[in-house]
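Ticket reopened. Same input as before:
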Amino acid sequence: MATLTVDHLRKTFPAIERGSSPTTAIDDLSFTIEGHVFVSVVGPSGCGKSTLLNILSGIETSSSGAATVSEGERPARLGYVFQDPRLLPWRTVMQNMLYVIDETGSTARERATTYLELVGLGDADGKFPAQLSGGMQQRVGIARAFAVEPDLLLMDEPFSHLDAITARSLREQLQDIWAKTQKTVLFVTHDVAEAVQLSDRIIVLAPGGRLYADVEVDLPRPRKASDTQVATMQAELLGRFETMQAEVEAAKASSIAS
Amino acid sequence: MSIAIDRTRAGSSGGGGADSVRRFLRSQRFARAASYVFLLILWWLASMYEDRFPAPLETFQFLWIEVTGGSHGGIVRGEFIEHFASTLPRFGLGIAISLVLGIAVGVLIGGSKLAEALFKDTLLVLVALPAIIWAFLTQMWFGLGDDAVVITTFLSAFPFVSVNVVQGIQAIPRELRRMSGAFHVSRMRRLRHMQIPAITGYIFAGFRFAVIIGWNAVLLAEWFSSSEGVGWRSRYWYDANRYRGFVAWVVLFIGFIVALDRLVLVRLQRRAFRWRDAQLSTIEREAEEIDVGVKGA
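Engineering reply: fixed in the latest deploy. New output:
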């Protein structure tokens, strides 16, 4: 179980053209995640969600502060689920799984099969991605991320490109897999309802990458979108979310007025 | 599209025979055959106009003796197998080297901005250099023998593979590269499972060019630096003022490359693109989509 520490993290992008001011994507963000928890990061677009993931995965560097993932003494292993499946189209499902697994031979094969079965695609190992539906491809993407046996699993709006019905069934499956595998998950989304259904804890970011709220979700599992408690909490959080956006709009308006 | 279908229906209700003839006349196979006939007619007309240009029939007679054997005016014939047997290994070796090095150099240049800045222009110069330059140079450097021929083939064919591979590497989607980076996939695995398959189409395009350019080059090199082989045999008849023999070998030379392209390269290409053809079976995919939907609801 990994420990994710974000410590006074700041990320500023330089001005794109002369005369414009640099944009702040993440502003003095601090939080810690520990143990077998499912944490969502929620925020409107432009609040630095993707930037946070990019810094954690090493694609981008921070301007100041630090974001570290550790597993005891050694650096933690990370798994990723992207918005789109990102499978190699010219390789079969099994080959796509083996592509990211460190082991070789039968160990790797067994592990790949285990996780494919977990997402209900145990018999699709010989197919090419193009032979699968969008939802099935995304399930392969999820199986692949779990198959590297990560200490921390990063998920970047993995259901946002799917139709509502497929997304709903995948959310339920994900809870199931997560319960079985005992992983630490950092789940990024702009969908408050989705976050409530899936998470133990929700970190709400405001535009400009500031921490707005840090909410515990202490509801029994497994949760369905239709559960009363889930729906109540969704409504409540959505209300706070809209208040936040209204505050931002108001601040913007007053800064223009003054 | 719909018009064509209607016409076919109307035709089949009228008379089946006339309709099938019409369909045959419009088929690709017929068009291809017609193009060969057209070329033969052009050739025949050209030979009537210019005496020194041998007519198709006498050329094919000459070619037949050259292939099957016999003697003609004291010169022993039937050296077809022998000359192809000495040309093909040189050609094969030259192409093999240019394929391996072409891919390696292409991957290097395509994968690094620095390497691109250093070598890309050199590569373009190499593409522009005609094979005959290499044929002359290698004859000066290596004299008569296999080396000059193999190296000319390699130098002429290799840049075409490389240029295509560079384009292919640069066309790999950024999402896949980032995915590989995020999962810390090793360089070897990336090469084998992401880069090489992603550029298969480009390799084939380059390889096909390389084979055709290389075949030109091997003949040119043999013309100048060999005492056996298809190129040398063409020159032999040319020097002997036997234009029939010269043209017969040109026909063999063209026939070989056309057959190689049609029979081997096209088939290899189809095999390499199985993953893409899998995309066509969408009916199965739609069925499964419905399946997932029902489960979710």
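The two ends of chain A are 50 Å apart (CA to CA). The interface with chain B takes residues 57, 59, 78-80, 82, 84, 86, 88-91, 95, 99-100, 127-128, 130-136, 148, 163, 165-166, 168-170 of chain A (CB under 8 Å). Please confirm and we'll close it.
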